[in-house]
Amino acid sequence: MRTQPIDQAAAALPAETRAAVYGGSKVQHEKGRKLLFDHYGDPNRLRKLAGEIKRHVVENLDTLLPAVEARLMANGATVHWAATAEAACEAVHSILKARGATKLVKSKTMVSEEIGLADYLEKRGIEALETDLGEFIVQLDHDQPSHIIAPIRHKNRRQIAELFERNGLGAYDDEPAVITKRARQFLRHKYLGADAGLTGANFVVAESGRIVVVTNEGNSRFCLAATRCHIALVGIEKILPRDRDLALFLNLLARSATAQQLSVYNEFILGPRAPGQPDGPEETHVVLVDNGRTEVLASECRDILRCIRCGACLNVCPVYRQAGGHAYRSVYPGPVGAVLSPLLLGKRFPEKADLPKASSLCGACNEVCPVNIPIPDLLLRLRDRAHVEGVPSPGTPPMGMWALLATRPAAWRAALAGGRILNLLPTRLIPIPALRAWQLKRDLPPWRGGKFRKWLKMRRKQQGRGQSRPQ
Amino acid sequence: MANDRETIMAKVRGALAPLKGRARMPDYDGGIELARKRANAADPMAEFAERLGAVNGEVVADPAALAATLRTRGWTRGYCDPALWPRIGPHFGADFTVETRFDRSRVDDYQFGITRGAGAIAETGTIILNDATTSSRLGALASWAHVAVISRGSLYSDLSEAVAALGQDPNVVWCTGPSKTADVEGILIEGVHGPGAQIALFVD
């Protein structure tokens, strides 16, 4: 039987990788949840509030974006707009060219993955080096990240030690402390020799123009201490209305992303370094990137633009745990990716229209989401869209007969009653092969089709009597 | 790029035009994110020390204790903010080599860096640095150990208070414990790019 692409990817996943992905995701999810519930009596209230704030942002981008732009400029930053991935890469390239820069150090930004920035710059003779440990390893191995927060969840220490040995970063040693120390030694000289530093932004505040960058390793801080030019790549949905909202969001982000009370480095940037400060950028550039976000905004799935990229929905997802991030064939994997990745393709939506089907709709992703995105609803909307647009769906079990019955009440009732024949039929003689195979391995309870309808009818009758009884 | 701005804004306006209403900004009490259990909230200094300890940082009592701590770990070469050195230097012995100018070409020579902190946050054990008070961003970042010298009066109780105090400094960074990663098999390793040790010294 043919299966869906994500099932094929999951089946092809080496057992070692599956164990790493499953174990890592489970541990991360459980730690984060414990931290949230240990600290807060009612964490749901927090995530619902954060969700309302981000919903306000998404639905008011027409006024918030110009407000952000004005504040950024008043603070001394240069603002660039990029409608497409190509335009965003060009914007970064022209900033670098204007400074004669040939060496860029990058801290982790999902937008740069999305627009393929490192490859774009490397092809034009500019070294674009990843500095987040996981991203550095991914880049060295010409691999792809498999998780928004933990890019090398799919790799183990032995693979990394071999990679380092092959790349002249020291003889084989798979001790994580040694791996980290070698990256530290190599990268600090790269920061100091670089002409510019590129970061993403976790938030940009409309009232102050503050760019907020969150890391644990301190790599974005090093980019901003060692180089003379800062470029921030910012998706147009990254806005928060006010500074005071940061307390809530930084709390939720650290807990949801890495099970910490607060991430190690939270950097708040208004613009170039202060006069008298010897280190840090003399130029601050902000590139506001659309690359499909306005299409998402125009769709019925605009709630996905609330996402703060914490990765909690990946960790909790039973499909992600089995399939790993690469199975989603996208920069954004997991439940958020199953919504966002096909939408960001715009007219090429059919290429990834299978991803919204890679979900059991169990709802866990919604329950852990720090901005309360109704991911299961959005997945259903995208399944519907694929159906309406007639996107072929290889590997989906045939549902034609079921659809025929489910849309005709009389046929449905007849089928429910007729199903009783299954109770009398020896398993070997069941005419539907899939059902026969199922029955050979399992004992189903006896067919009771129609019982529920009878019960419901009776209950309504009784309730009707109850209401008419005088008090 | 001016064109891109118009393209994007037109698409944003077009996307939002069909909405019947816009979600309003919820009005919320700033205290909501603080509605949690805090063991030491009554004593901010104790709470700060406990929270910083929880992320493997430490508080030292005075400059003499700082010198003793650094010596015990074998960290005797370092950088110090020139404005702080006259006050701290007398407590350091002749076995220390301390420079008051951070030379980036010898980044690996510094085992510790001592700079002023702009403040601290009790509920998280966070040290606040900014451009106005940090003599050198690299001096506070690139050495293995960072010592922040913080005035007792600038200890904030919680994140909300610290956010309210962000002000107009072009660069504020909150540091909560040593730089760390769990990228390799989820195992916690400290000292990735920034300090592997974070020390706080409060002064009057």
Short synopsis of the structure:
The complex is a heterodimer of chains A (471) and B (204). Chain A has 23 helices and ten strands. Chain A has helices at 5-12, 15-39, 43-59, 61-74, 85-98, 110-115, 117-123, 133-140, 157-166, 176-193, 219-226, 245-258, 293-298, 312-316, 318-323, 334-344, 364-368, 375-388, 400-406, 409-418, 421-424, 433-441, 451-468; strands at residues 78-82, 103-106, 127-130, 196-199, 203-205, 211-215, 229-235, 239-240, 265-269, 283-289.
Describe this structure in words.
- The complex is a heterodimer of chains A (471) and B (204).
- With 471 residues, chain A is an alpha/beta fold.
- Chain A contains 23 helices and ten strands.
- Chain A folds into three domains: 120 residues, no CATH class; 248 residues, NagB/RpiA/CoA transferase-like (Rossmann fold), CATH 3.40.50; 65 residues, no CATH class.
- Chain A is 52% helix and 10% strand.
- In chain A, α16 packs parallel to α18.
- Chain B is an alpha/beta fold and 204 residues long.
- The model of chain B has no long low-confidence stretch (mean pLDDT 94).
- Classes of the chains: A alpha/beta (471), B alpha/beta (204).
- At the A-B interface, α2, α3, α4, β1 and α8 of A face α1, α5, β9 and β10 of B.
Features:
heterodimer; A: alpha/beta; Rossmann fold; 4-stranded mixed beta sheet; 23 helices; B: 204 residues; alpha/beta; 24% strand; globular
